[in-house]
From TrEMBL, chain B:
UniProt similarity note: Belongs to the ABC transporter superfamily.
GO MF term (any one): ABC-type maltose transporter activity
Keywords, ordered alphabetically: ATP-binding, Nucleotide-binding, Transport
Keyword Transport among UniProt keywords: yes
Domain ABC transporter: residue ranges: 4-234
Organism listed in the record: Oceanicola granulosus (strain ATCC BAA-861 / DSM 15982 / KCTC 12143 / HTCC2516)
Source organism, top-level taxon: Bacteria
Any one GO cellular component localisation term in the record: ATP-binding cassette (ABC) transporter complex, substrate-binding subunit-containing
Protein name: ABC sorbitol/mannitol transporter, ATPase subunit
PANTHER family (UniProt xref): MALTODEXTRIN IMPORT ATP-BINDING PROTEIN MSMX, MALTOSE_MALTODEXTRIN IMPORT ATP-BINDING PROTEIN MALK
Length: 287, 334
């Protein structure tokens, strides 16, 4: 009895949350789905509720689609590489006892609290700027020609900005993993004659593999939807147009809501394929 | 060969002296047990020998060669840890092979040694399993296997049986003793369990607060404990330590009588008291006796057939030649 009572009580209590979730997620999704089959261009006052798969066909066949998928993969891949490698190194470093450990750890986490738009602006104006940026000063101090990062290496610049933001996240997760490693295992490996590099390769890295897959999964989900950093720095120019950004351009710059919605649905499907793929890997790793 | 000499070895953590300078000689092929209450520095001493901790002063020699500054891997010692410290992501075979792989041994020799160790430790059927799929006793054997294949100068055991249940512990105790008889390699074994120390050791080192209280064979320690601490620590149940007038009669500050050296007599006797708890083990019965004028209850080991129960009056007579006498400093009197 008691369990039945508490069950129905539980249902009532989670109902508001479920309701909000449905309103927030299902309604936009359904509307996107509806618009994706419509020819809807408000600036031209066009609204044709059903044009079949025309939007999908034109979105998929446009040359910018494939380019944007490649850009997205490059960007996500690059950021993942930097954050995982950097995160592992930072975690190992922060695990060592040192003076001011608490303060250092907080400082390391700090970038994660900076809003994407703000960090992109800071990087754009204070670091990458050709005239006033710190990097330009550094280049001139070394007697080199200042390098215009955002126009010469735009994709790389955005990767650096986003990686800087996500490095703390990776570091934090990996640090807890490093700390959970049994120190007797490392001592045993030391007794077994494994030098530091072998201990990393055979003991620490396998121990971290689970945490690394979790980091990859979570970051990929968030990184597929990078927007603010691109919007603030390059506006999608110079080959930095990701799938998310392409959808944005179709909807707001071309004012073609039908085409953009179709792109959005395609992006959802692609993201789900990636997610299923990643979940499989994680599932294998989590036994 | 596995002769280990410690000379004035000292260990400090910051300003705290954990181990004051001590000397110790461990002969080749000996089974030495470091025993003492928890926090007495026995594990630290073992880690100093292993090289996992640096000595603050003094010298460690292995087979006459100075080893104080050698890294752990170069000392030719193998260690079995309390938590076994198996590598969870490697199969049993890879775990055992790891030290040989690190030494760059050729594959054939590795396989030969793994097969030999697995045979000796009954692990042949489990070689392809992960440590997580093994029972506590099997994990323990894998840890020992990983130590054996290196053919070390000496084995170091850090409380290896404390994570096992009582029945398994007795079994593993025998297996380790047998292993020592077969390999005839020096073994240093740390435990807080004096039963393990008594049953396995050739030589027991009793430690308290980093100081060696006594070194000797199990029976030496049992028969002639050098001081009150060793007397109370070695032997099960514990020796009865009596102070006051009863000790004064023997001209000592403290006298010690082991439970098995107290005879239950029908009447008279040196001590008369009432039985508190009676523990019937079948072969023996332990009586906890409240004797008038003594603070602590006395423990008596009697024949299993003696039928006395809670509240009964009991008369006790110590065997006169088995009374240990200690002076005011707690040292044994001749």
């Amino acid at each position: 009895m008691a369990t039945q009572h508490s069950r129905s009580a539980a249902r009532w209590m989670i109902a508001p949350a479920v309701f909000v979730l449905l309103v927030w997620m299902l309604i936009p999704l359904c509307m996107t789905l509806y618009f994706s089959f419509a020819d809807y261009r408000p600036m031209r006052a066009t609204f044709e509720p059903w044009i079949g798969f025309d939007n999908y066909v034109s979105f998929l066949t446009s040359s910018s689609f494939l380019d944007s998928v490649v850009t997205t993969l490059q960007m996500v891949g690059g950021i993942l590489c930097i954050t995982i490698v950097g995160g592992v190194l930072m975690a190992l470093l922060l695990d060592k006892p040192m003076f001011g450990q608490g303060v250092v750890r907080i400082l390391v986490i700090a970038p994660f609290f900076v809003m994407p738009t703000v960090s992109a602006l800071v990087w754009k104006n204070m670091f990458f700027n050709v005239d006033n940026g710190l990097f330009s000063y550094a280049y001139s101090a070394l007697g080199l020609q200042p390098f215009d990062f955002l126009s010469q290496a735009p994709l790389f610049s955005i990767i650096v900005i986003v990686a800087w933001q996500w490095l703390p996240f990776a570091t934090l997760i990996l640090l807890t993993a490093v700390q959970s490693l049994d120190s007797e295992q490392l001592e045993a490996a030391e007794m077994d004659g494994a030098p530091a590099l072998s201990r990393f390769r055979y003991i620490i890295l396998p121990h971290l593999s689970r945490a690394i897959t979790v980091v990859i999964l979570i970051q990929t989900i968030f990184l597929l939807s990078i927007f603010a950093e691109i919007f603030v720095t390059t506006n999608g120019a110079f080959g930095t147009r990701t799938l998310t950004y392409l959808v944005y351009q179709r909807v707001l710059e071309s004012q073609n809501i039908g085409l953009g919605s179709a792109g959005g649905i395609i992006a959802v499907i692609l993201a789900n394929i990636v997610a299923i793929f990643l979940m499989r890997i994680v599932g294998k790793n989590l036994d | 060969m596995g002769r280990i000499t410690l000379e004035k070895v000292q260990k400090k953590f910051g300003d705290v002296e954990v181990i004051p300078p001590l000397d110790l000689e461990i002969d080749d092929g000996e089974f030495v047990v470091f025993v003492g209450p928890s926090g007495c520095g026995k594990s630290t001493l073992l880690r100093l020998i292993a090289g996992l901790e640096d000595v603050s002063a003094g010298e460690i020699r292995i087979d006459g060669q100075p080893a104080t500054d050698k890294p752990p891997a170069k000392r030719g010692l193998a260690m079995v840890f309390q938590s076994y410290a198996l590598y969870p992501h490697m199969s049993v075979r890879k775990n055992i092979a790891f030290p040989m792989k690190m030494a760059g041994m050729d594959q054939e020799e590795q396989d030969r040694r793994i097969a030999k160790a697995a045979q000796a430790l009954n692990l042949t059927d489990y070689l392809d399993r992960r440590p997580g799929q093994l029972s506590g006793g099997q994990r323990q054997r894998v840890a020992i296997g990983r130590a054996i294949v290196r053919e070390p100068a000496a084995f170091l055991f850090d409380e290896p049986l404390s994570n096992l249940d009582a029945a398994l512990r007795v079994g593993m105790r025998l297996e380790i003793s047998e292993l020592h008889n077969t390999l005839e390699t020096t073994m240093i074994y740390v435990t807080h369990d004096q039963v393990e120390a008594m049953t396995m050791a050739d030589k027991i080192v009793v430690l308290r607060a980093g100081v060696i209280e006594q070194v000797g064979s199990p029976l030496e320690l049992y028969r002639e404990p050098r001081n009150v601490f060793v007397a109370g620590f070695i032997g099960s149940p514990k020796m009865n330590l009596i102070t006051g007038p009863s000790a004064g009669q023997h001209g000592a500050q403290t006298i010690g009588i082991r439970p098995e050296h107290l005879d239950v007599v029908p009447s008279g006797g040196t001590f008369t008291g009432t039985v508190g708890v009676a523990e019937h083990l079948g072969s023996d019965t332990f009586f906890h006796v409240h004797v008038d004028g003594l603070e602590e209850p006395m423990t008596v080991r009697a024949d299993g057939e003696v039928s006395l129960h809670h509240g009964d009056t009991i008369h006790l007579e110590p065997q006169p030649d088995k009374i240990h006498r200690f002076d005011a400093d707690g040292l044994r009197m001749a």
